[in-house]
């Protein structure tokens, strides 16, 4: 099973989609504790770090990198400490004129067996009732709801999620990822129709031959007896 890195990137609020003008705080976490580290970003082939000067972005405050997001801030973010590097997180920032609402979805993989809640957020920060889609198809009960709660999430719940209303296009899509609990490995995935057929017992190549052979032999014996009886008696 894959090994989790010793350090992780914490996002507050914990989601992947933002509007320009939103704020987000990024920090490095080890063993459940915030530690000093460097937050980095890659976008357009360029990598920079959170800091106050030059081409750097954001501002460090109390061991956290605070960002007032612009649409140009869309990119891959991660943190580095003396213990290693975290997984990268794709943060997407959208113009408020581009979408009327976005999907609130966790930034990190959700542990299998736990609960997860998805919400549809307006550009003014409020929540709205919406239909939720998975891989472009209605999910849940197919009703307009304030939030989509997935209980005891499983690997089968992974997919591209979005939210929609009756009067507008769906929100941007983001991937919900699920990981196995620590110390367990993911079960092998199977695809319907690709498994080999079950074993069947071997059958005789010509099952009728074992029945016809004794019958034919009996017929020959009868014919021989008839011929013998028809012969004239010997003098």
Which features characterize this protein?
single chain, 235 residues, mainly beta, Immunoglobulin-like, 2 domains, six-stranded mixed β-sheet, five-stranded antiparallel β-sheet, 20 strands, 9% helix, 37% strand, globular
Secondary structure layout:
Elements: E1 8-12, E2 17-19, E3 23-30, E4 33-35, E5 38-43, E6 46-49, E7 59-61, E8 64-68, E9 75-81, E10 84-85, E11 89-94, E12 101-104, E13 110-111, E14 116-122, E15 131-134, E16 137-138, E17 147-150, E18 159-164, E19 174-176, E20 178-179, H1 209-230
Parallel strand pairs: 2-11, 13-20
Antiparallel strand pairs: 1-3, 3-4, 3-8, 5-6, 5-9, 7-8, 9-10, 9-11, 12-14, 14-17, 15-16, 15-18, 18-19
Give structural notes:
By secondary structure, the chain is mainly beta. The protein has 2 domains: 1-97, Sandwich (Immunoglobulin-like), CATH 2.60.40.10; 99-183, Immunoglobulins (Immunoglobulin-like, Sandwich), CATH 2.60.40.10. It has 1 helix and 20 strands. It has one helix at 209-230, and strands at 8-12, 17-19, 23-30, 33-35, 38-43, 46-49, 59-61, 64-68, 75-81, 84-85, 89-94, 101-104, 110-111, 116-122, 131-134, 137-138, 147-150, 159-164, 174-176, 178-179. Strands 2, 5, 6, 9, 10 and 11 form a 6-stranded mixed sheet that branches. Strands 1, 3, 4, 7 and 8 form a 5-stranded antiparallel sheet that branches. Strands 16-15-18-19 form a 4-stranded antiparallel sheet, with no helix packed on it. Strand 9 (75-81) and strand 10 (84-85) form a beta hairpin. It is globular.
